[in-house]
Structures are given as structure tokens and as C-alpha cells.
Design brief:
The chain is α+β, with helices and mostly antiparallel strands. The protein has a single domain, classed as Lambda Exonuclease, Chain A (Alpha-Beta Complex), CATH 3.90.320.10. It contains 3 helices and 7 strands. The protein has a 5-stranded mixed sheet with strand order 1-2-3-4-5, with helices on both faces. The protein has a two-stranded antiparallel sheet with strand order 6-7. Helix 3 links the parallel strand 3 and strand 4. It is globular.
């Protein structure tokens, strides 16, 4: 099992934001605050990174990920009462479409911060899930 310092730093930044603001704000507010915390943590990132989506070799549209951090990890934010499978599927799709090994789905909308690690099955990675202490592999 690999300990992922980058993921833990991002989750720590998200915890600071959530403990300060709580739940109930729009996603864009959390996105701006998380950017401030990640900057303070010395992380390099881009916000609202646009990526072309292809079907059968034809460009069919574009999507934006909330963050690409250290050119290694996609971060998708939500501000909903509870994470549903559709949000997890979206995060998985971004990880595959952007060809990243892993991603992080963070929900600020619940009373406690929620997060899920997602992995591209093209890469072989196992990372500890700090929510439960167990290894969690969510492949696309």
C-alpha cells in the first residue's frame, strides 16, 4: 500500500475549509476557498481545466475539472447533501478522460466532509482510505 502525501494534503486543506465554513454554500465558494488553502500549503494547481472529450475518435464536447493538482491528480468538488453514485461516476470519467492515475471527489455539502478516492484502471495503485483505514481501490 502506498501512502499518498499529495492526497492527504488536499484533504487537509478541504477539512480546514469545511471546518471554517461548514456546509450550505454553493460549490464555487468552496472551490475558491480550497484554492486559497492549497496555495497556502504550497501546492501547484489549475482551476477549471478544460478537456476535450472524444467518442470514436471524434471530439464530441468539452468538460472542466474543478482542479488539476501538481499535474498528478484531478479534484472534483460537490456541495450536495450526500454523495451519490452519479457524482462518483463523473469523477471516475474525468480521471479516465484526462488520463490521470487517480482523482479525488470532495463533498462540502454534508455536515461532515465527504471524500472518495478514484483510480484509473489503466494504472495499478492502492492507497489507504483514511476514512476507514482500509485500502480502497475504485477503478473506472
Amino acid at each position: 500500500m502506498v501512502k499518498d502525501e499529495l492526497t492527504y494534503k488536499i484533504i487537509g486543506c478541504a477539512m480546514k475549509v469545511h471546518s471554517s465554513l461548514g456546509n450550505g454554500f454553493q460549490e464555487v465558494i468552496y472551490q475558491r476557498c480550497l484554492a486559497i488553502e492549497m496555495e497556502k500549503a504550497g501546492l501547484s494547481f489549475e482551476r477549471e481545466v478544460e478537456q476535450k472529450i472524444y467518442y470514436d475518435g471524434v471530439e464530441v464536447g468539452k468538460r472542466r475539472a474543478d482542479f488539476v493538482v501538481e499535474n498528478q491528480l484531478i479534484v472534483e468538488l460537490k456541495a450536495v447533501i450526500d454523495l451519490e453514485d452519479v457524482y462518483l461516476a463523473q469523477a471516475k470519467n474525468y480521471v479516465v478522460a484526462y488520463d490521470f492515475a487517480r482523482g479525488l471527489l470532495i463533498n462540502f455539502g454534508s455536515t461532515s466532509l465527504q471524500y472518495k478516492l478514484v483510480f484509473n484502471s489503466k494504472y495499478n495503485i492502492a492507497i489507504a482510505d483514511s476514512n476507514s483505514g482500509n485500502s480502497e481501490i475504485l477503478k473506472s
